[in-house]
What we know:
Blueprint: E1 41-50, H1 54-72, E2 74-80, H2 85-91, H3 97-104, E3 108-113, H4 128-139, E4 143-149, H5 162-165, E5 169-175, E6 187-190, E7 196-199, H6 206-222, E8 226-231, H7 237-249, E9 257-262, H8 263-272, E10 279-282, H9 284-297, E11 307-309, E12 315-317, H10 336-349, H11 353-368, E13 371-372, E14 382-383, H12 386-399, H13 403-412, E15 441-446, E16 449-454, E17 489-495, E18 498-504, E19 507-512, E20 515-520, H14 551-571, H15 573-594, E21 601-604, E22 612-615, H16 625-639, H17 657-665, H18 690-699, E23 711-713, E24 811-814, E25 820-823, H19 825-833, E26 845-846, E27 858-869, E28 874-885, E29 892-897, E30 900-905
Parallel strand pairs: 1-2, 1-3, 3-12, 5-10, 8-9, 8-10, 13-14, 23-24, 26-30
Antiparallel strand pairs: 4-5, 4-11, 6-7, 11-12, 15-16, 17-18, 19-20, 21-22, 24-25, 27-28, 29-30
The chain binds 1,4-dihydronicotinamide adenine dinucleotide and 2-OXO-4-methylpentanoic acid.
GO molecular function: 3-isopropylmalate dehydrogenase activity; magnesium ion binding; NAD binding; nucleic acid binding; zinc ion binding
Subunit structure: Homodimer.
Region (Disordered): 463-490, 521-540, 624-680, 716-786
Amino acid sequence: MAASLQLNCKPFTPLLLHSKSASKRALKFSTVRCSAAAPSKSYTITLLPGDGIGPEVISVAKNALKLVASLEGFEFKFKEVPVGGAALDLTGVPLPEETLSTAKGSDAVLLGAIGGYKWDNNEKHLKPETGLLQLRAGLKVFANLRPATVLPQLVDASTLKKDVAEGVDLMVVRELTGGIYFGKPRGFGTNGNGEEIGFNTEVYTTHEIDRIARVAFETARKRGGKLCSVDKANVLEASMLWRKRVTALASEYPDVELSHMYVDNAAMQLVRNPKQFDTIVTNNIFGDILSDEASMITGSIGMLPSASLGESGPGLFEPIHGSAPDIAGQDKANPLATVLSAAMLLKYGLGEEMAARRIEAAVLDTLDRGYRTGDIHSASQKLVGCKEMGEQVLKSIDSKVAAAVKVGVSMAAPETDLAARTDRVRSVWIGGDKASGGDRLQQGQTDGLRFGCWWHRRDSADCKAAPQDSADRTTPDETEPSNNEEEDVELQLRGGSAIQLGVFEKSRFVFTQDGVRVSTTKKGNNNELPKISEDDPKSPITPGEEVSFSNTQVWDAKYHFDALTSYVNHQNREMENRLGEQLAQLAEQIGSLKTQSTEAQTVQGPPERSVELQVAVERQVEPQGAVAGAAAQGRAAARRPQLPPERQDNDFGPESDDREEFEDNFEHPRRGDCRDRPRAPYRLGKEETLDATIIRYIEGMNPDIACEVELRDFSSIKEMPSSRNPSSSTPTEATRRRSPPDQPARRFDRNAPQTGCRPESMLPNQPRPPTTRPNQAVTMPNAAPARARDIQCQECQGWGHFQAQCPNRRVLFLSDQNELESASEDELEQAKGNATNEEVPIDDVESVEVNPDAPIVSLVTIRSLSINRTKEHDHQWENIFYTLHDGRLNTYTVKNNGRTCILKPLAPKAVAED
Ligand SMILES: NC(=O)C1=CN([C@@H]2O[C@H](COP(=O)(O)OP(=O)(O)OC[C@H]3O[C@@H](n4cnc5c(N)ncnc54)[C@H](O)[C@@H]3O)[C@@H](O)[C@H]2O)C=CC1
Ligand SMILES: CC(C)CC(=O)C(=O)O
């Protein structure tokens, strides 16, 4: 027997899905073993399909087991034997000798369910249920672990309110071979009055209580460290002994916080506030009932697996549900509880943890992809039967969860209505050309996980400044997914509202069980690349130096990756599928505008899953013929100004009343002291809602630098005609923005009243307020928009800033006098109205140097969230990276140190020719 369970030496390392300590494990696989390899191990599994839906769900689980075994390099020998009603019909007894001996002789036992109407009136010893009890007793599996975890994907399937159910992760440790199910005397008889009676005995020995209590303490120790013992010690002697023994054992587990609760209260507390529970230990009957109750918190009894373990011998693994005769034979059963029981079999029964994780990951992925059986189905999900669900799980096991594909789409287009906005292609980040920092799309790749690294460019208007020479361009071949460490990449991971922008040289991305590790070493000519400021403590890249990222940065990347996958997996799958197609079309259009060859575009991936977009603009050419027509059209569209709406009502300030309003309008997953807060779900290896990501992001922002800024130089840009006053078509110089003498320079004032905030506008998934006057043709100079307010943000559709990282960024102006002025949208409007010729220096800005010969187009500012994880809390802070986009690779970086901005030009670059 290969896998007898030694409770002492292998005390229930919790599974990914059932573990409070699962945060350290990501759903990632560092290796994919070749399925063709000769299996190194072989396990014998007894399959007991049983009755009702049992055979249906067992068939699905068996296929999953077979597939993961082939992927992990071992094999199963399955022995299928009857139990319950099926055995009664075949052999006349519910647990034939042969069934028990086969089970005992195997490495693990997987059971479907037993029971059905047909045998309901059988005598006790001829009931299917008796067969199951005999099996449990025969295998001596006294410890039944029943995890109940509310998966983020199924939070809406719970019958409890979302805020009650979300994050529930508890484990019921049920005593399985004692108590009233087995106690004697039991039976029927007559009492002194001659009245018929039925009686049972709830009986527990010290030894029985102690061994289950130890398992429970060990389990709690590996989870959240809290154990609640549930009994009825106010009434029942067996419970009084139970409580006494559990209390006595607590001294051996000082790290576990023990509490006691009467079962009636526990039943109530489970639906009142299930999150108060971590591990519950209880007797056979209470455990049976409470775990069924807990199952509904998670959405369905069809989701909950269980593992029954003894001191030695094979474990018994079964879903907690019964044979569901009401849906049997109709292909309606949810097989996931059994599939997850198979994962528990792999983990607890065989020690095949990787294989177990494959199954768990596949279940999550299947749910992510929207497949639901009837019991967990809700509108907009794909309703499938048992068999189809099984097929989808197999597909997910096989697919290795190609995260990168999804990443690509969400990175490139976090918006919902691209199709309607093809005239705004300028703001889609799809690459660009090398000299202006755009053409290379590089992908890191490892087994099962990839992500894209984009050289980005901001808008197609900049393409005009791109050099014609293509000698130094990356060819499409070079953009194939690879771990090419020789390439310089700018890594931009976007997840929800969290952005990470860093410029790394010779980056190495290592995917491990724990997440993404990033290291970088210096490469070749540093001056080729824009860099993060050397002053920036987060950016230890110094020319000529070989560096590795610190832990912080590793986590940083990990955090963003988590946020990203969270965003992708759970919030936007549907949207992304749609977006993928739209994006592909868009890419084509853009490609036809700017490239000669279509080779530069690759759209990959099964459409139903996702679309991988690789667009590399090879060269700036004037397209011919039909393409030229499209190009002209596209250019016109790209230049067409987006007219601001009448009113800017989505400004947002971190400390404003509006923020409070925003906070009031949203459920906060993380209020109060960080130690008391439930940790962000991603920390548990789970995903979180986009709202939660955003709220966490906002909450984590340093209020002093919470204002996202865009820097623009006005020295070479003419003002556009005002869209609010189209008649004023004469361009005016805006090179000197000044405040009136009696007014100090406007800067971000947290106490200043903010214009009406629309919190929902911060959520990328929310429908955007329509632009009130879209796409009106206005004659404008052939230049980028002159005023920040003439730029429409893709994210919130507001004006005065652009780009998806919004939310409602503020603006900083860089004047030709090397001064910065910070102002909100309204403040700018007002300042403009009050403009005089007075200069007002801004005192907290240092070392601003701008090359007057370089026609600066704009300084793009990206805000990113950083995170440092400690045991107790996440420390988050915000980074602001600024990159000057001038079409000539002149790059400046700005370090935002509290409220001080330091503009610092980097070493001069080789200036590419327009
Ligand atoms: N471990 C076992 O084999 C168990 C067997 N049973 C036996 O099962 C038979 C039916 O018992 P019930 O009390 O009705 O409990 P049950 O768990 O079989 O069904 C309860 C309800 O949940 C639904 N349900 C259960 N599993 C489902 C799944 N995988 N997918 C979708 N819906 C599911 C059923 O359709 C039914 O509406 C009885 O003969 C009982 O003794 C009951 C509990 C455990
Ligand atoms: C069917 C019974 C033997 C027991 C039961 O309901 C269970 O353990 O889940």
